[in-house]
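Recall that a protein's primary structure is simply its ordered list of amino acids. Everything else, from secondary elements to tertiary packing, is in principle encoded there. The following example makes that idea concrete.
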Amino acid sequence: MVVRVAPGADLGNAALRVRAKLAQRPRADVIVELARGTYTLAAPLIFDARDGGGASRSVTWRAAAGEPVTVSGADLAAH
């Protein structure tokens, strides 16, 4: 299963969407695909055991093929 995320989206909310999908389909492999762009974090993105793979599934976060992605915690407005 592929979860696509667009720039401007909250990655924390994307993680919650992935958790919900994994709860529905616990053995499904999941790829979280980030579209080209910058994703600014307002708070730390924290993963726990619910977010990972294991013996029966894999969970992969990656940039879409050939698309540059930046995940930033910088507050550019402060400069």
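The first helix runs from residue 11 to 24. The first strand starts at residue 2 and ends at 5.
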